[in-house]
Design brief:
Elements (H helix, E strand, L loop, with lengths): L10 H11 L4 E5 L6 E5 L6 E3 L9 E5 L9 E5 L2 E7 L6 E7 L6 H9 L20 H16 L5 E11 L6 H11 L4 E7 L4 E7 L2 E5 L4 E12 L17 H20 L6 E10 L2 E11 L8 H9 L7 E2 L1 H11 L10 E5 L1 E2 L5 E7 L3 E5 L2 E10 L5 H19 L4
Antiparallel strand pairs: 1-2, 1-9, 2-6, 3-5, 4-5, 4-16, 6-7, 8-15, 8-20, 9-10, 10-19, 11-12, 11-18, 12-14, 13-14, 16-18, 17-18, 19-20
Helix pairs in contact: 3-8
Amino acid sequence: MITTTLEKNNCRQQLWKSAKQLAFPTAMWRLPRQTEKHFLTSFSAIPEQTKIDFEELGPGFAFSPFVNIDGKNTFFLKADLHYIFTESDLNNKEDLQEVIVPSSLNPQFIDLLASLDSDQKKVYQSTFDNQEQSQKQDYINLVEKAVDQINAGSFQKVVLSRTKKITLSSDFEVVTVFDKLCKAYPSAFVSAVSLPHLGVIWMGASPETLVSQNAKGIFRTMALAGTQSAYDADGNLIRPSEALWRQKEIEEQSFVTRYIINCLKKIRVREFEEEGPKTVIAGNLMHLRTDIIIDTVEINFPQLATVMLDLLHPTSAVCGMPKVPATEFILANEGYDREFYSGFLGPINMQTNGNGQESHIFVNLRTMKLQNEAAILYAGCGITADSNPTKEWQETEMKTQTLERVLNAEL
């Protein structure tokens, strides 16, 4: 077995370095409120681009951009190799729980895996100074323009984003940062996706489920919107039950909830459970969340996850309302390509917790792109008629802190 060549403490480091050296597309992830950590590699140099159909695809990992024409531009990393790691409660060391190996394992991968030294030189080294550019005024101007368009009746809401560039430290390691994110954000979907043919790695800790369906056919999605700091002025954590929300955030969240319900109406699904809105903590932030739960077996609709993924993406939580004019405004005015930010990602038809095959797709938020020895951080916020441009800028600053704290080794 391939595991005989690995030391338990360095399994994922060696796996990640082997896949990177062979230019294999790779994903690591940990589901919200779980301890299992997953590692998946595809032995195809360029992953397939396809439309996601949960009933037709085998085990793998989906990674989709914000702009996805007809849903066919999603990368699908086939699970040629899938490891599941779990942490021992006694010694906090990783143990290999399960291995899924193809019938014909890539011999090049085995040879390289056995030869790697876990203490080899760090992969990422910083070679240039941090180049900070103030985007504050540009972003404020953009928000003001959006509010003018809302007041003119062009749309009701639009989600505007920006980027922030940070130089990676000399000791940066993907697996180490991944583990820090898992520790810091236990309720988030933590991920790292390497696409060698594009020369990029994307990492993040997303709080938002787009669609999920477990082995029993229970479908879930959520409306997550509205943002405020999870800490008061004195630095104390605010209890969710004591959070106060402005009309702007309440309205913003209701837009997303109505959008999901309207999608269900389009396909004549009326038997659903609605929980919320309730206040939830995601790292250093609080959000309003409403959960939508449907028993697909009871309503005899096994294809629901596939249909809803097509209808929901991009949701009003990352785009706006109505979708078409909001998207057109984003593409014409944001001034950069979102690429995979505010797209979607997650495991499809994979084993989880020994409960059979499940699929969990998340919105790619609280994310960063690693390229050319730098990290590009992404953050956005929903703009409505009541938006204050300066406060919207401050909200994007709070959101980038989710990843900045980890990169700055404060954890």
